[in-house]
From TrEMBL:
<protein>
    <recommendedName>
        <fullName>2-amino-4-hydroxy-6-hydroxymethyldihydropteridine diphosphokinase</fullName>
        <ecNumber>2.7.6.3</ecNumber>
    </recommendedName>
</protein>
<dbReference type="GO" id="GO:0016301">
    <property type="term" value="F:kinase activity"/>
</dbReference>
<dbReference type="InterPro" id="IPR000550">
    <property type="entry name" value="Hppk"/>
</dbReference>
<feature type="domain" description="7,8-dihydro-6-hydroxymethylpterin-pyrophosphokinase">
    <location>
        <begin position="5"/>
        <end position="129"/>
    </location>
</feature>
<dbReference type="Pfam" id="PF01288">
    <property type="entry name" value="HPPK"/>
</dbReference>
<keyword id="KW-0289">Folate biosynthesis</keyword>
<keyword id="KW-0808">Transferase</keyword>
<keyword id="KW-0067">ATP-binding</keyword>
<comment type="pathway">
    <text>Cofactor biosynthesis; tetrahydrofolate biosynthesis; 2-amino-4-hydroxy-6-hydroxymethyl-7,8-dihydropteridine diphosphate from 7,8-dihydroneopterin triphosphate: step 4/4.</text>
</comment>
<dbReference type="GO" id="GO:0005524">
    <property type="term" value="F:ATP binding"/>
</dbReference>
<dbReference type="GO" id="GO:0046654">
    <property type="term" value="P:tetrahydrofolate biosynthetic process"/>
</dbReference>
<keyword id="KW-0418">Kinase</keyword>
<dbReference type="GO" id="GO:0003848">
    <property type="term" value="F:2-amino-4-hydroxy-6-hydroxymethyldihydropteridine diphosphokinase activity"/>
</dbReference>
<keyword id="KW-0547">Nucleotide-binding</keyword>
<dbReference type="InterPro" id="IPR035907">
    <property type="entry name" value="Hppk_sf"/>
</dbReference>
<dbReference type="GO" id="GO:0046656">
    <property type="term" value="P:folic acid biosynthetic process"/>
</dbReference>
Length: 168
């Protein structure tokens, strides 16, 4: 069983799109631990604001199997098969960490976005502050403390998910 961390986000009606995706994540992976939810401006394109947070859970599948299950959930919740990287989406699920694995295939782990997106690093550091980022030697809280917080604006918001109550 591997401990995994998933970045969850969306900017197309996210208050309605993300809770059902969380239900599917819980059905696929079991109990979920959620960070706070943050709202941020779109990065890399002009679009509506995103809601972003990180989920921790366990996977009994390989990295490839885990990624395939995440992509299936995205597709089931309206993400086009050919979605461009910098575009609006209802649900975006990215595998950030798979235990302490470092790899290049089938996805790059740990995800490079951890280092340069506040909406990934802040919630990830909340869930696992003392965890050392594989390949860096620094804890997630140390990385967040050093992060230039002036580069991206984000603020905590609520997301109602009936399985967990209000997420702050």
């Amino acid at each position: 069983m591997a401990r995994i961390f998933i970045s969850v986000g969306g900017n197309i009606d996210p208050h309605h799109a993300l809770p059902p995706a969380l239900d599917d994540l819980q059905r696929q992976f079991g109990p979920l631990q959620l960070s706070r939810v943050f709202e941020s401006e779109a990065v890399g394109f002009t679009g509506d604001n995103f809601l972003n947070f990180v989920v921790a859970c366990d996977s009994n599948g390989s990295v490839a199997d885990t990624v395939a299950r995440l992509k299936a959930i995205e597709l089931a919740h309206g993400r086009p098969l050919n979605a461009r990287k910098f575009s609006s989406r209802s649900v975006d699920l990215d595998l950030l960490l798979y235990d302490d694995l470092c790899c290049q295939q089938p996805v790059v782990l740990p995800r490079p976005e951890i280092h340069y997106n506040a909406f990934v690093l802040w919630p990830l550091s909340e869930l696992a502050p003392t965890m050392k980022l594989p390949g860096s030697g620094a804890s997630l809280s140390q990385l967040w403390q050093k992060f230039d917080k002036t580069t991206q604006k984000l603020w905590p918001v609520s997301l109602h998910w009936p399985c967990a109550g209000e997420q702050q």
